[in-house]
Structures are given as structure tokens and as C-alpha cells.
Fold this sequence. Notes:
single chain; alpha/beta; 2-enoyl-CoA Hydratase, Chain A, domain 1; five-stranded parallel beta sheet; two-stranded antiparallel sheet; 7 helices; about 40% helix; disordered N terminus
Amino acid sequence: MRPKDHHGEDARGSDEGPIEIGVVGDLTDNEGDLCDRLLGVEPGGECTLYFDSPGGSPYCAISLMTIILIRQLRATGIVTGECSSAALWPFAACQRRIVTPFSVLLFHPMKWQSEEHVGLAEAAEWARHFGDLERNMDRLLAEIFGVSLEDMDDWINPGRYVTGKELSDAGLAELLNLSELITRSNNGQVAQGGKQPAARKR
């Protein structure tokens, strides 16, 4: 019997193609579901991740990225809207990355906030840990994207919105031509219906 994920879907995929997973909204709020979906893909298997996320916890970012890498998933990441902040790490871990001219990716320094009643010693330790975490994650992001830390730093500090075209021009993703998709879609409607759909009356 083939294993199934928690949604009851065949974890090995089907004749319809690789498992598709929506990485939408805050990563931290959806971490449990995203981990379950990724674990539902057999090691070395294919999956497609659709990104429209503003980010989330840096620990969640590292966790999702690690699952993709350690299970050697042949993941395709497609940025359908936004892929910012913490969402960049799992996207970078995808073997194939696809963007559109309207895709937006925000690179910026990590941000953090402390709880109200935190001791001075604990705050100092957190600040030390946070500084190390930020440096190491920036270095990791540059490594997994395959660019120099200096080039990555130009985007991260002080922060920059990078378009899909810019990411493609940098050689970090494929640029999807939406006009071609629209043409294919229109041709598909003609092929199925035999004629163009009638225009609606206003």
C-alpha cells in the first residue's frame, strides 16, 4: 500500500504529475501543514511549491529548507505572487525556480522583537545569538542560491524588493512569460469549444 499524507493524498504522486503544495501566507502559522505535505513526498520524489508568502520565523525557514534538502526532493518552486523574508530559504532550496515579471521577492536584514518581561542577561544572550543567526543565514542563502556573499549583501542590506525579471537576469530563476500562457489558454478554449466564447453584453 502506498503511503498517504495527512490529507489522504497519495504521497507517491499519480499519473497527473508531482504533488503540488501551496506555500501561502505566514510560514510560521502554516508550518505544521507545510512540513506534513513535504514529508508526504517520498525521498527523492518530485513536488511543485507555489509561493505567495511574506515570510515568517527564521527557524521555520531553516526547517522547511532542511526538509527539502535532506530528503533530496526534486522540488520546483514557482513564485505566483510574493516570496519574501523567511520564504526565500525554502524557495532557494528548490532545484528549479520559476518566477513571473510580477513576482516580488523582498530581501532584508532579519528583524526581531523581545517579550515584555525579559531579563537583561537573557536579552543580551538573545542579541548575541540573533547576530550569529543572521550572519549564518545570510551566508547560507548566498550559498544555496549559488552567488557570492557580497552580491547577496547588496540585496539584503539595507533591504530591497527584487522583481522576478531581476532574479532571472541574475541567473537565479527562470522567467515565465505570462503572455504565452494567456495565448495557450485562449487556444485551449478554442480547441475545446470549437469557437471563441461570446462576449458578455454589458
